[in-house]
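Office hours follow-up: a student asked to see two folded examples consecutively, so here they are.
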Amino acid sequence: MPDDAAPETLQFGWEEWISLPDLGVPALRAKVDTGARTSALHAFDIETFGSQARPKVRFTVHPIPGRDDLVIPCSANIVDRREVASSNGEKEMRYVIESALLVNGQKWPIEITLTNRSTMTSRMLLGRQAMKDHISIAATDRFLQPELSYDVYHTSRMREVAPQRALRICVLSREDNYSTRRLVEEGEKRGHSVEVINTTRCYMAINALAPEVHYDGKRLPRFDAVIPRIGASITPYGAAIIRQFETIGTYCVNGAAGITASRDKLYAHQIMARARIGMPNTAFASSPRDTANIISLVGTTPLIVKLLESTQGKGVVLAETKKAAESVIDAFRGLKANFLVQSFVKEAAGEDIRCLVIGGKVVASMKRTGAEGDFRSNLHRGGTAKSVRITKEERETAVRAARAFDLNMAGVDLLRSESGPKVLEVNSSPGFEGIETSTNKNIVGKLYEQIEARVRPVPIRRRKTSTSGSADKQT
């Protein structure tokens, strides 16, 4: 039917099957009530979010009466908030949204108020505003339009019809830098609500029945996903906060275990060794009696001496001779510092490759070259970067390294050696500025695609409450 053609008038009985495609509700039995001005939808867990200029509301729907184990998560823009009087005269302030109503192939926008209709036999009520010029009423009949079926909620088709609802995202970060700003910018561009939460200002209520995360004196709302940007100096506390979100059931892009393991350089190398991932020969000892022993374990000089707590190239020393290596090792030991000794990959010539892995795929890679006279290629130390094409072996190595730490997002740094790629480090909070600038790719957009795929709203089947009184969810 052409857009400018008059819609066909539909005849409704007092009860009809309808669809709300914008909300991902393909089948719903609705009561038609010309005495009500606005339509009403059964909704619970109603929660506002978003900016004051464009407020939104999240809620969940039980589409089938008597089936509270079937839940559809929804979100929409708020168009109004008004007082509504129910049939028994009680008044209630309700949020008003706009959504498309679909019946027999015809679709038009209607206003819907959100309220708890759990005591009503119909999950939705259609009021006068929804009728407009599209409907005539036969008050003594029902189901004059094609009947739908609740069976649709038990098929794979639900993933196809589920809308990309707005998500509420938490970015755990203490810094106002490029990466944090890009996460907010890209998330809001995609219609999500993104909140930056200072990790160190979070605190936890730890209990078996209702674990919570609090912030600045208030309980944090229910987030769809958490993007950790945990600084190295607060790794233990940051990991504890992430574990709390994991306990609640929030999807965390990177889990606490992976972040903690990647930050512990000794443990990280042990994990990579167990996964048979290529890396420079590495040795560690608390206090060897003979410095020469630790040197011989990695080969000959030159070699690298690296503090376990080093970041951004700090605490990394190149010892070009055996005497220099002995001096550096003795100095570190005198400071009671923990350190690794690694073989030096000379053929890398001061260059390494950063592979950005998201969702088990390398989405971008760049070659970093150290500043003049510096063997370290860190961009924070004056290095430069450019896009680079990596080999199949390098790609597979980067993916395997991220998987070894169970990280959904990781910056994998590797060297090109004569015997194949050697992984230097797996970074659980990689920066986006250098790789987005050098590759001209929207890396943050790729991250949001992965988040949306993981938390896409589809009907949730809740298991029945067990004898212990607990219940959980499964998709």
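And the second, which I mentioned at the end of office hours:
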Amino acid sequence: MNSQAIPSYKEGSKELKEKLSHTLSANAFEVFNSDAERIGKEYTSVLKLKVGDKAPNFKLVNTDDEYVNLYEVLEAKRVVLTFFRGTWCPYCNLILSQYQAVLPEIEKAGATVLAISPQTPDASLETKEKNGLEFEILSDNGNIVSKEFTAIHKNPEESLHKMTELGYDYDCYNCDEKSEIPVPATFIIEQDATISFAKTEGGDYRNRVEPSDIINALNRK
């Protein structure tokens, strides 16, 4: 895959915002965007681990109700670890589908992808099937693992109310009812568990780490 074939999240999100501006009511569109901007201003220092740190081990359930152990995966390959909000978030679906598009390049570089959210395994399976994902989607009940890597915040009440109005039962997606979600962030973990890449675009969840950033970081090794 050459650089021209790597999808651009910036361009994809621009198209997504345009689509949402037509499919959502003006009020709902404004609420979601205002909340995203506010979260972006509140969460500017996000990453809990940086390049050079050792990633802590974890064991989380995948969509088949089987445990995935980070260090066991690292025995065979490097890991691109990404944290996302949930299957109800259109920006999460966009970036995960783009990571799937570059999965062959990721695997060529000797790595795989693990994606983590506070969703139930059933909701994670919905994410996987909806986006045709061939990598693991893991359920982090209570954001126990997520909070070791990135900031956690409560989903704003106005957004939750609008989700309900749109027919989304938010609590049914998650393992608990705290309404807490991770600030999206992506890491590359080497086989010795050292973090070689750590990036977030901040609390504004409409912004995400570009697939090209990941590919370039993997190929620098």
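Two things to take away from it. The radius of gyration is 17 Å. The chain has one domain: 8-219.
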